[in-house]
């Protein structure tokens, strides 16, 4: 019998303003326990995600560009770069 993955993604907060959408997500289960801030800029057509320590999650949610590593291509989602 095949075991099914029990990893869950729980949206903790979501906000949008002036074409910028920011979502705070908790990924948990199957030995995972992390928080991620997802950012989508509709004006630029770009998206990226920021894995953050739990104790910085709310600050990263409100200030995602302060936590983004701009030289890190791994933080960019596929197809997000123009």
Notes on the structure:
With 82 residues, the protein is mainly beta. The chain has one domain (8-69). 12% of the residues lie in helices and 45% in strands. It has helices spanning 57-62, 64-67, and strands at residues 8-17, 20-29, 32-41, 46-52. A four-stranded antiparallel beta sheet has the order 1-2-3-4. A hairpin with a 2-residue loop joins strand 1 (8-17) and strand 2 (20-29). The protein is elongated. The protein starts with 7 loop residues before the first strand and ends in a 15-residue tail after the last helix.
Give the topology, please.
Layout lengths: L7 E10 L2 E10 L2 E10 L4 E7 L4 H6 L1 H4 L15
Antiparallel strand pairs: 1-2, 2-3, 3-4
Radius of gyration: 14 Å
Number of domains: 1
What ranges have pLDDT less than 50 throughout 5 or more consecutive residues? 73-82
Shape: elongated
| Count of β-strands | 4
> Count of helical segments?
2
What is the distance, rounded to the nearest whole angstrom, between the alpha carbons of the first and last residues? 44 Å
Order of strands in the sheet with most strands: 1-2-3-4
Q: Mean pLDDT, rounded to whole units? A: 85
Structural class: mainly beta
What is the H/E string? EEEEHH
């Amino acid at each position: 019998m095949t075991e099914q993955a029990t990893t869950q993604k729980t949206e903790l907060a979501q906000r949008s303003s002036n074409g910028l959408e920011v979502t705070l997500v908790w990924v948990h289960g199957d030995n995972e326990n992390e928080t991620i801030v997802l950012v989508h800029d509709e004006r630029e057509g770009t998206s990226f995600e920021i894995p953050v320590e739990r104790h910085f999650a709310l600050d990263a949610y409100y200030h995602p560009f302060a936590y983004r590593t701009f030289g890190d291509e791994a933080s960019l989602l596929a197809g997000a770069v123009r």
